[in-house]
Amino acid sequence: MPARERGYDSRWDKARATFLSRRPHCEFVVDGKACGKPATIVDHVVPHRGDQELFWDSGNWMPLCAHCHSSRKQSLEHRGSAAARARAMPFGIRPSRIPVIIVCGPPGAGKAAYVEIHSNPRDLVIDFDVIRDRLASQAGRNPVTSLTAKALDERNRLLRSLADDHLHDRCFFIVSAADPEDRETWRRKLGGRIVLLATPLEECIRRIQSDPRRYGKENQLIDLARAWWERQPAPAQPLRQEA
Ligand SMILES: [Zn+2]
Predict the structure, then answer these.
(1) Which of 14, 62, 153, 242 lies at a 20 to 30 A Cα distance from 146?
(2) Do 191 and 83 have their domain in common?
(3) How far apart are CA 151 and CA 59, in angstroms?
(4) How far is the CA of 157 from the centre of ligand 1 (A)?
């Protein structure tokens, strides 16, 4: 993917220059001592993998020289991204005891609205955004980085609990799952069925822009919606598939 499509646009150029003017030296630590050479790279400590909050959180940035970035960061990043992947698509999830409806689609597709219409009070709704917002209001000013990880851990705990669930009639699991293989993996792990809300990009953008809860996050969400559509196998026919 070209760097520009991952969010490295002019806004990033500016943010990066400001950050490096304030922290001009490489902060990579070897044997308890920071490298200290002139920094030319702003690195994401926790790999953002397209997560816009992680991408723009300056608490997740670190100035590095080119040498430290290429020779030393690689192995760390490799380990970090493996952990991030394991969080996003966790192991050890057994098939659900109750029926599961896996609601997939880009930001702005109307996943939460779909669940609101189709669920009843005895259903369990598992929605990463809701979990993260709840943790955020409890945590106050805790760093976003740990919040995302915590919210994924909590989501995964709920998914694991489905194998023994005696409390709910059904589960609605909301996940954007841009990759068709990921959707199939979720279905295989949990059982149940997929509801794919492949809302056309223009409509997603319109909804994102008119939703006051998304105020301040519109551009990031639109980028994510665009990225979701880019991952669909061609020809990406808009469709609304309900089983
Ligand atoms: Zn260095």
Answers:
(1) 14
(2) no
(3) 18
(4) 39
Q: Is the dihedral of CA 7, 47, 177, 113 positive or negative?
A: negative
Helix (H, G, I), strand (E, B) or coil at 16: helix
Q: Give the residue with greater pLDDT, 53 vs 116.
A: 116
pLDDT, one tens digit per residue, over 212-243 is 888 888 888 998 999 899 888 865 455 555 54
> What is the 40 CA–ligand 1 centroid distance (Å)?
9
Tokens of 146: 């740990």
Q: Are residues 57 and 108 in the same domain?
A: no
- Give distance in angstroms: CA of 237 to centre of ligand 1: 48
Question: What separation in Å is there between the alpha carbon of 59 and the centre of ligand 1?
Answer: 19
The residue range of the domain holding 152 is: 100-241
The conformation of residue 237, written as its DSSP 8-state character, comes to -
Q: Do both 113 and 81 map to the same domain? A: no
pTM: 0.65
Same domain for 116 and 18: no
- Ligand 1 centre from 14 Cα, in Å? 22
Residue 93 lies in a domain: no
CA of 42 to the centre of ligand 1 (A): 12
Ligand 1 center from residue 9 Cα (angstroms):
25
